[in-house]
């Protein structure tokens, strides 16, 4: 048999109510948990805090050919700087890219690469432009795999800060991969 609320009020009218001190302690505990959670997230303990920036790109002016000397793609190089903004180090174990019209041929950097707090590394990636019209206008990610003290994972490095004026008559703002493809595909000496 349960005791009704009316009976409890007759026994002790303040039963179940928090005192000002108890309320302050509970609110303080909740605030502490929120602050500690934010600090752990910000530190990079959960997932590395990184930025990616394209330092430069250019076409090499060479047509890559297969064993039968058929053209398979125009060479282009991209330098992407990855910076660790977290307090916790992590190690880059690899790079991949699934960008339509481009094929990642190789990365000049040897892996693994460890990045401490505030450290940066520039990854020089060699791409082949395989289908000029298919290369997208909007920024596309380069996938970076990593390992840290707590787990293995991946993040997508996307350059979104700088857009480049295209060479077309509309002078659209395009991402690095489209501008590189335009440069390679519109070079009359390559075709």
Folded structure, characterized:
The protein is α+β, with helices and mostly antiparallel strands. The protein has 2 domains: 5-43; 50-185, Immunoglobulin-like (Sandwich), CATH 2.60.40. 21% of the residues lie in helices and 38% in strands. It is built from 3 helices and 10 strands; from the N terminus they run ααββββββββββα. It has helices at residues 5-11, 20-43, 176-185, and strands spanning 50-65, 71-84, 90-96, 102-107, 113-115, 120-129, 142-147, 152-157, 164-165, 173-174. The strands form 3 sheets. It has a 4-stranded antiparallel β-sheet, with helices on one face. Strands 5-3-7-8 form a 4-stranded antiparallel β-sheet, with no helix packed on it. The termini are far apart. The mean pLDDT is 79.
Give a brief description.
With 191 residues, the chain is of the alpha+beta class. The chain is built from three helices and ten strands; from the N terminus they run ααββββββββββα.
Describe the protein's topology.
Layout: H1 5-11, H2 20-43, E1 50-65, E2 71-84, E3 90-96, E4 102-107, E5 113-115, E6 120-129, E7 142-147, E8 152-157, E9 164-165, E10 173-174, H3 176-185
Antiparallel strand pairs: 1-2, 2-6, 3-5, 3-7, 4-6, 7-8, 9-10
User: What's the SSE pattern?
Assistant: HHEEEEEEEEEEH
CATH topology name of the largest domain: Immunoglobulin-like
Q: How far apart, in Å, are the first and last alpha carbons?
A: 91 Å
Overall form: elongated
Helix content: 10-25%
Q: What class would the helix/strand composition place it in?
A: alpha+beta
Low-confidence sequence ranges: none
CATH top level label of the largest domain: Mainly Beta
Overall pLDDT, averaged? 79
Report the sheet with the most strands, covering strand number, pairing sense and barrel closure: 4 strands, antiparallel
Number of domains: 2
Supply the CATH architecture of the largest domain. Answer: Sandwich
How big is the Rg? 27 Å
Topology, number of strands? 10
């Amino acid at each position: 048999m349960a005791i009704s609320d009316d009976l409890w009020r007759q026994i002790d009218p303040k039963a179940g109510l928090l005192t000002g001190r108890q309320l302050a302690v509970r609110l303080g505990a909740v605030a502490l948990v929120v602050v500690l959670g934010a600090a752990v997230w910000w530190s990079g303990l959960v997932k590395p805090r990184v930025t990616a920036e394209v330092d430069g790109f250019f076409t090499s002016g060479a047509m890559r050919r297969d064993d039968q000397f058929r053209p398979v793609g125009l060479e282009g190089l991209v330098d992407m700087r990855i910076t660790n903004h977290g307090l916790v180090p992590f190690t880059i174990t690899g790079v991949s890219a699934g960008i339509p019209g481009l094929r990642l041929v190789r990365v000049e950097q040897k892996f693994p690469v460890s990045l401490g707090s505030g450290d940066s590394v520039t990854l020089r990636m060699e791409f082949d432009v395989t289908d000029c019209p298919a290369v997208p206008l909007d920024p596309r990610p380069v996938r970076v795999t990593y390992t840290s003290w707590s787990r293995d994972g991946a993040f997508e490095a996307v350059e979104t800060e700088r857009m480049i004026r295209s060479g077309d008559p509309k002078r659209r703002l395009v991402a690095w991969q489209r501008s590189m493809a335009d440069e390679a595909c519109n070079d009359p000496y390559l075709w």
